[in-house]
Write a structure and sequence with these properties.
The complex is a heterodimer of chains A (about 325) and B (about 290). With about 325 residues, chain A is of the alpha/beta class. Chain A has a single domain, classed as TIM Barrel, CATH 3.20.20. Chain A has helices spanning about 20-25, 110-120, 135-145, 170, 175-185, 205-210, 250-260, 280-285, 295-300, 305-320, and strands at about 35-40, 40-45, 50, 70-75, 90-95, 95-100, 125-130, 155, 190-195, 215-220, 225, 230, 235, 240-245, 270, 290-295. Helices cover about 15% and strands about 35% of the residues of chain B. Chain B has helices spanning about 85-90, 130-135, 155-165, 180-195, 215-225; strands at about 1-15, 15-20, 35-40, 50-55, 55, 75-80, 95-105, 115-120, 140-150, 165-170, 180, 205-210, 230-235, 250-255, 270-275, 280. In chain B, strands 4-3-7-1-2-6-5 form a seven-stranded antiparallel sheet, with no helix packed on it. A seven-stranded mixed sheet of chain B has the order 11-10-9-8-12-13-16, with helices on both faces. In chain B, helix 4 packs parallel to helix 5 (about 215-225). Classes of the chains: A alpha/beta (about 325), B alpha/beta (about 290). At the A-B interface, strand 5, strand 6 and helix 9 of A face strand 7, strand 14 and strand 15 of B. The structure holds flavin-adenine dinucleotide, flavin mononucleotide and FE2/S2 (inorganic) cluster.
Chain lengths: ~325, ~290
Amino acid sequence: MKKQHKLSLRGALAPKQSPSEIASASPRNDITPNLSVNIAGIHLKNPVMTASGTFGYGEEYSPYVDLNKLGAIIVKGLSLKPRQGNPCPRIVETPAGMLNAIGLQNVGVDVFIKEKLPFLKKYNAPVIANIFGQGIDEYTEVAKRLDGTGIAGIEINISCPNVKKGGIVFGTNPKEAAKVVRAVKKAASLPIITKLSPNVTDIKIMARAVEDAGSDAISLINTITGMAIDVEKRKPKLANITGGLSGPAIRPIAVRMVWETSKVVKIPIIGIGGIMTANDALEFIIAGAKAVQIGTANFVEPDVTIKILKGIEDYCERHRIKNLMELIGSLKRH
Amino acid sequence: MMNSRVLYNKNILPSYYKLGLEIDGGFPDCQAGQFVMLKISEQLDPLLRRPFGIYKNRVQGGCPLGAGSRVQGIEILYKVVGKGTWIMSGLKEGDKIDVLGPLGNSFPLSDGYKNIIMVAGGIGIVPFYMQVASCKMQVATCKILFGGRNKNDLPGLNDFKKLGVDISISTDDGSTGGKGFVTELLKEELEKKGSRGQGVKGSNNTLVLACGSKPMLKAVAEIADKKNIPCYVSLDNVMACGMGACLGCAVKVKGSRVQGFKSSRNNLQLYKMVCKDGPVFDSREIDWEKI
Ligand SMILES: Cc1cc2nc3c(=O)[nH]c(=O)nc-3n(C[C@H](O)[C@H](O)[C@H](O)COP(=O)(O)OP(=O)(O)OC[C@H]3O[C@@H](n4cnc5c(N)ncnc54)[C@H](O)[C@@H]3O)c2cc1C
Ligand SMILES: Cc1cc2nc3c(=O)[nH]c(=O)nc-3n(C[C@H](O)[C@H](O)[C@H](O)COP(=O)(O)O)c2cc1C
Ligand code: FES
């Protein structure tokens, strides 16, 4: 390939602020806005959390992020026994996103409690354990072992599309999803967040089913099942053939699902999907999410969570919003 | 993570470029084999950072970043293969680019080895510029075996000639050096050294380091293994985070026992992360069948 001079990088290297952010260097409030929220009894200093599987066990990111500043830390999905995960290649980049088929590789709940949790406890951000199982027994056993360890809550992954025997059944079937939620509720006295799969026809049915089963909050969305093919080799780009799509490409779908869900449930909603900037996070909050989780963006910019938090603060000051609660679900009509 | 300034971006051979980056304070402790993750574009496509080895490090000497100036930084040697590297080739002096690093482990230091043979295929030459410098400090003799498809596939050759290091070249088409694969050079070299296996005089003094395509690395690992010569390889894999968080850059290993894996099937660790456990691995650790 010859050197290409035509390509302009002016756009590519422009400042990261959006036009609206630049335009509004308007007068500010004197009072710092109150960004704290309460999700299922878990007190968050601010609504910015890390999404499971994209922030390791926290330690990986501690050189780049002051973990104390985070609303909450959600760790990589935990199963009863350690899991090796899928063959390689496990990830592939797609336009404005990526497909992953990690296969839920994790250290297992016991090693997490013994070796990973003590590090996280040094910080004051609440730790939420994401759990999954191959059957209801496994979910409840993992939840039991986590109860009383000092974590703030449990996020149930009923939606991972990667592992054939894994969450797919629970995540797409309202009755099965409700069963898991009920069982985990019974097994542990911790607040329970149920993480929904977008790979369903009607997200509202799933949301209602888990609310009725006693879930204290809902987080959505998990990744959307996708596929990419190497046309030269006529082979799937992932060894697992299909994978979960994440990143900005999925954001409009996630915002729509949060908005739809917010109209049918009373429990708090945590918005997830392609959040890269404060404005992206605000879309979810205005659509009805009480908090947000940042996933793939951590890979691109390790300290993106802190930047998003700062951006939300700035937005509230600019719009004279004293309490984040004023903004949640504040979507106006056209 | 830091915003660095592009000092230069030179086209040195068809598809190959050298990118000089000014980095405040430099990377004083950086070792041969380590890499950085570059955020090439502020756009959402390409979304992810791209990994690149550190070719030259000004702080450790030898990098001609603005000769005579006090500028600290690194030099990246890269090949245009796709969208991200194509965008990189358009970078100009003064452009800003976000650098994350240095990341990963490094090649073992001489550890008493007297002969270090470095086998590089094409862009796989990158980690060896700094490795030669550290070999020299440790009074080990080093030899570079450099293979490419043709004479335009030997990036950085002049830099190594300037270092005065012993270098043998092979190209698939014979346009420079001997015709054939670089692995043939390795076989010859090991014959010369008379290192035919453990116990034979000299064998324990030789160490093989390799970086290049997976088939090349596999062949090098086999040759070294047959001779019972320790061999370390630097692996390449698609990455998302570069810091052990996404578990995307896994490589299959032969399995080492780990605590917590209880059932018999599960008590072996089957995958390691190229970004965190590597990119440099003992070649005997890798499950080459699955590469
Ligand atoms: C630790 C490490 C150090 C590296 N050091 C250097 C270096 O010093 N110089 C250099 O030129 N390159 C280096 N690479 C490879 C470099 O990261 C890739 O060439 C680059 O990411 C390609 O980006 P792209 O957007 O141009 O290509 P894409 O459009 O993403 O892909 C183009 C083609 O290259 C393949 N590909 C992409 N990334 C990789 C990869 N990491 N490994 C194998 N195949 C890949 C894709 O499958 C596709 O076929 C290194 C990789 C690693 C993991
Ligand atoms: C590499 C990777 C690993 C993930 N692992 C998990 C997991 O273990 N459990 C889970 O519930 N979600 C997992 N997810 C889904 C994310 O938590 C998140 O729901 C999804 O990526 C969408 O958000 P994003 O677009 O901000 O990344 C993972 C996502 C990625 C990219
Ligand atoms: S690139 Fe994320 S774990 Fe290696």
